[in-house]
Amino acid sequence: MKIAVIGTGYVGLTTGVGLAEIGHKVVCIDREESKINKLKNGQLPFFEQNLEELCGKNSKNGRIAFDSDMKEAVGNADLIIIAVGTPPHPITKEADMKYIHAAATELADFLQGYTVVATKSTVPVGTGDDIETLIKKKNPKADFDVVSLPEFLREGFAVHDFFHPDRIIVGANSERAFNVIKNLYSYFADKTKILHVQRRSAETIKYAANAFLAMKIHYVNELADFCEKTDVDIFEVAQGIGADTRIGDKFLQPGPGYGGSCFPKDTLAMAYMARQNNVEMGLINTVIQGNNKRKKDMAERILLSVKGIENPKIAVWGLAFKAGTDDCRESPAIDILAQLLENKANICVYDPKAMEKAKILLGNKVSFAENMYTAVQGADVLVILTEWQEFKETDLEKVAGAMRTKTILDFRNCLDKEKVKAGGFAYRGIGRK
């Protein structure tokens, strides 16, 4: 199939590259000429494991191309995928739809023959109706259908998730459109369930899934606090409840709070949509408030660890919201650092991939180390905020030799507690005995 993907962010680019890899002809479109030029030269705007290699491979074999002008790409397409951003409104926190509406309005004039227009962006219920109205108003003669194709890609594992989906949700109000999407995903026909639902149901599924996972994360974080107070190990508890197939073992790892480009935005948007429809969603509102408090509590733990030390230095490993990505949007690490900086803390930070993104957010308020060992030089506490593999494999003797005070706060439970304590460190994880 000939496919046009509008938007080259995490969702658009990963989707475009994945579809090219399974044999489709893809053109990825973005307004930013500089971004398109970099993509043509093999430079991706973000880090995602294995994506650069796949992008380069499919660019060389001609299955994926990049352009800033949508006219030709849209006119030749069997399917147009809208994957532009839907950032939260700064006041109401509802999803900002201006980029979605702009893309729908612009592409309308270029439609030729029957075309399916799909939304991959996470959009409020009823967005498909709005897109349909905008296109019809701009081009009354257009022959098209609008479908919802919610994405379930985890940052850091997005390439893996594209090729190994739990399910594929197709929100299509016509069999004609559904058949186009079945053809699109024929590669997965024998590998995963393709679920045909109504368009508004598909739009709801994405928000419902992310809100549920955010609740699961917050629940295990609260449970970890309980374990700390009662001399219980959260790992054993999580293993026990995760073995229940009704619960499952995913998203039961305690930490400093959820973050990233999806969970914070989508829980806020879900809460907003509920208020607009006079529906009480107390669980989601409690999770949002609790997650905000969680990050403040983590900052307080750090400050307490250096209380009484003159001019303490805090070393931080990890700035991205999770391992496998350089994304710092709504990262718990960044929010925790902001709390520490309010208290005039002296901080040195390191992250294997997210340094450049973090510098945009933090400026010169913290020191940026060349590697994880220079970050701990002279430090009174080491705080681990992202679960990178290299942190798990750290040389503890080297760390001990560099630090002034041997204290580690492991907010991702990366390290072997017994080995750390044997190395002479004061150690505190999350939910550990």
Could you characterize what this model shows?
The protein is an alpha/beta fold and 433 residues long. The protein has three domains: 2-197, Rossmann fold, CATH 3.40.50; 207-283, N-(1-d-carboxylethyl)-l-norvaline Dehydrogenase, domain 2; 289-428, 3-Layer(aba) Sandwich (Rossmann fold). The protein contains 18 helices and 14 strands. The chain has helices spanning 10-21, 33-40, 51-60, 70-75, 98-108, 127-138, 158-163, 175-184, 199-230, 234-242, 263-276, 282-305, 332-342, 355-362, 372-375, 389-392, 396-402, 417-422, and strands at 2-6, 25-29, 64-67, 79-82, 115-119, 144-148, 167-171, 193-197, 313-317, 346-350, 367-368, 381-384, 407-410, 426-428. Strand 13 (407-410), helix 18 and strand 14 form a beta-alpha-beta unit. Helix 1 (10-21) packs across helix 3, helix 5 (98-108) packs parallel to helix 6 and helix 12 packs across helix 13 (332-342). It is globular and about 75 Å long. The mean pLDDT is 96.
Helical content stands at: 40-55%
CATH fold-type name of the largest domain: Rossmann fold
Averaged pLDDT, please?
Answer: 96
CATH architecture title of the largest domain? 3-Layer(aba) Sandwich
Q: Could you say which structural class the secondary elements and strand pairing correspond to? A: alpha/beta
- Name the CATH superfamily classification of the largest domain: NAD(P)-binding Rossmann-like Domain
What is the quaternary state of this protein? single chain
> What is the terminal-to-terminal distance?
56 Å
How many beta-strand runs? 14
